[in-house]
Amino acid sequence: MAEQPELTIQGWGPSPAGHPADAAGDRAAGLEEALPKAARRHLARELGWTPRRTPPVPVPEIRLTPTRLPEPTLAALTALLGEENVRTDRESRLLRAGGKSYLDLLRRRAGDATDAPDAVVLPGTTEETAALLALCSVHDVVVVPFGGGTSVVGGLAGVDPDDRPAVALDLRRMASVQELDVPSSMVTVGPGMRGPQLEEALGKEGLTFGHLPQSWEFATLGGYAATRSSGQASTGVGRFDDLVAGLTLATPSGVLEVGHPPASAAGPDLLGLALGSEGTLGVITELRLRVRPKPATTSYEGWSFRTWAAGLAALQRLARHDLLPDVVRLSDVDETRANLLMSGGTGARVLRGMLRARRHGEGCLLVVGWEGLPDIVRARTRAASALLRSRGGIRLGHSVGESWRKHRFGAPYTRDTLLDAGLMVETLETAATWAALPTVYDAVRRALRESLTAGGRRPLVMTHLSHGYPTGASLYFTVLADRDEELPIQQWLNAKRAATDALLAAGGTLTHHHAVGADHRPWLEREIGPLGVEVLRAVKSRLDPKGICNPGVLLPD
Ligand SMILES: Cc1cc2nc3c(=O)[nH]c(=O)nc-3n(C[C@H](O)[C@H](O)[C@H](O)COP(=O)(O)OP(=O)(O)OC[C@H]3O[C@@H](n4cnc5c(N)ncnc54)[C@H](O)[C@@H]3O)c2cc1C
Predict the structure, then answer these.
(1) 116/357 Cα distance (integer angstroms)
(2) Strand 166-170's sheet: what is its strand order?
(3) Which of 10, 151, 248, 465 to mutate to test the pocket of ligand 1 (most atoms within 8 A of CB)?
(4) Is the whole-model pTM more than 0.90?
(5) Which residues are substrate-binding (predicted)?
(6) Residue 34 banded pLDDT, cuts 50, 70, 90
(7) 112-138 as b/e, with b when 16 or more CB fall inside 10 Å?
(8) Do 368 and 303 form a contact (C-beta atoms < 8 A)?
(9) What is the DSSP annotation of 226-247?
């Protein structure tokens, strides 16, 4: 198994040389190199923030409690998996301590990893995983499946109401292509595989998978399935759910095979229970995924709308006529302004000047991308462009679209730099119908502003629409504020609570693609109702009677 880059313990990955994120600025580069002067000034003015050095505590000083696994349990785990696949060393445990939410990073940066798993276990097959779950049930050990470790909702928190010892079940040994069925456009893979490895394997056959979330470099296919992820091209290729033809779920009560390609009417679809189960029902140990030919043509371009409302109306119109591009991303005025300032360079300056000259103000940037056969791309582009233009859109050309594509994995690297300079940086997301989107947008921004405005501090809330559907779209909010160094965790918890209440009240979903995790579970009942929660509990207690499978997430207390 080839070594893959690791996420860092206190942030995102170390930027590999030559990675596009280098242009956005990696953490070693520091604030001055990561952000152009105009962007630093803009943030200071908007936020009431003075840049300062707030580096994380050195890794050797991070606090970790001794493993709580009793000796007989460790011996049983070792007898099952072999010594090299049961790890209790400091680094293995630190690397699986939680995910990559702002709260996770705050804790790790402050030197706290007391919530790290007691051990890391690495099964190699479905059978080994099932045996491991049975063993952990007997020994009363909590099991938290660990894919790429990129959860942003506390999905790896490992919290157990009974405070039992916990292991992180790392899936990296199950990370290969097992079968490629070209006539059926289907690939069978291990859940520990990451996107880049899958694309490399498929590319040799002229195929692609096409699921590209911003966490693509590190997240795993099993993690995508467990959280119902959505990638940047989901409007075209579909959500991850749409791409799963079937999967294998190892549970403490046995192994389930769900999904019957190409389609089946044999009762309710059990695949839907496994997708989004977040490790609470067992471990996804194999995935059968839909693949497609590599697109012969890709075309990305930028457009500008005078206002957010005009951009929304244009996209709604595209959706109604089934003309939405494969990638669609409309930024509001705040995000457009910040992105143009952050990208710096002559291109952004020329663009701003051109928009002003056409009395477009700063506008709202729309990035669209089409992929597929040349004739079809051409026809779709032509029809969609005519509609965008008729709704007041100004075409900015391919360089804007290509620039977004080049830098699209860079933001998490920049986040590390901003955290080092005294900022709070976090994102949240939802989805709503076209009718409800404007209300949800206003309500969330208002809630965040009210919660985070205090003592000279003001937040910057930047929003974009992405993942379009015939019935609505997803909204993604990025929030920056001067960090409250006294109560940084409370500062974000208050804001998140206010935003979540607001988006639910306005008709948004609790989560469109980040999942429930530990952070959203107090609100799950509001989304699916008390009976819905009882149904999920009943399924869990049948598959996981001892409640060892990731008990800290999804289901409310
Ligand atoms: C910077 C950044 C950008 C992101 N961008 C996106 C985005 O564009 N789109 C998006 O959808 N998400 C995004 N995310 C969220 C995250 O990447 C996704 O939720 C992803 O699906 C998690 O995959 P993972 O392999 O890292 O899973 P992990 O974080 O390891 O686990 C996530 C949850 O799934 C469970 N789990 C993992 N593997 C399995 C398995 N094999 N069987 C059962 N349960 C399992 C875990 O126990 C946990 O509850 C982003 C996160 C970050 C930090």
Answers:
(1) 55
(2) 86-87, 119-121, 166-170, 142-146
(3) 151
(4) yes
(5) 415
(6) confident
(7) ebebbbbbbbbbbebebbbebbbbbbe
(8) yes
(9) HHT---TTHHHH--HHHHEEEE
Tokens of 19: 């990675």
**Cα separation, 13 vs 26, whole angstroms:** 9
Read off the tokens for 118: 């007691």
Q: Specify the ligand 1 atom closest to the Cα of 282.
A: 43
Q: For 388-425, what is each residue's pLDDT tens digit?
A: 999 999 999 999 999 999 989 989 999 999 999 999 99
Ligand 1: atom nearest CA of 100 is: 53
The answer, yes or no, to whether any atom of ligand 1 lies below 6 A from the CB of 104, is no
**Euclidean distance between CA atoms 379 and 394, whole angstroms:** 19
pLDDT digits (tens, 9 = 90+) for 65-106: 999 999 999 999 999 999 999 999 999 999 999 999 999 999
Q: Which atom of ligand 1 is nearest to 216's Cα? A: 17
Which pLDDT band holds residue 24 (cuts at 50, 70, 90)? very low
- With tokens 């005009």, the residue in question is 310
- Contact between residue 426 and residue 408 where contact means Cβ atoms under 8 Å apart: no
Angle between helices 126-139 and 71-81 (to 10 degrees): 170
Rg (CA), the chain: 23
Known catalytic membership, residue 476:
yes
Is 150 a pocket residue for ligand 1 (Cβ < 6 Å)? yes
Residue among 65, 89, 19 at smallest CA distance from 407: 19
Ligand 1 centroid–CA 219 distance in Å is 6
Measured in Å, residue 192 CA sits from the centre of ligand 1 at 11
Q: Measure the CA–CA gap between 318 and 464, rounded to whole angstroms.
A: 17
Q: What's the pLDDT band for 348 if we cut at 50, 70, 90? A: confident
Number of CB atoms found within 10 A of residue 50's CB: 9
Q: Is the CB of 192 under 6 A from ligand 1?
A: no
Query: Reduced to 3 states, what is the DSSP secondary structure of residue 35?
Result: coil
ipTM value greater than 0.95: yes
User: 60: how many CB neighbours lie within 10 A of its CB?
Assistant: 7
Q: Would the CA dihedral through 202, 207, 211, 217 be positive or negative?
A: positive
Structure tokens at 193: 């595989």
- Can you list the domains of the chain with their CATH numbers? 177-293 (3.30.465.10), 297-408 (3.30.70.3450), 412-505 (3.30.300.330)
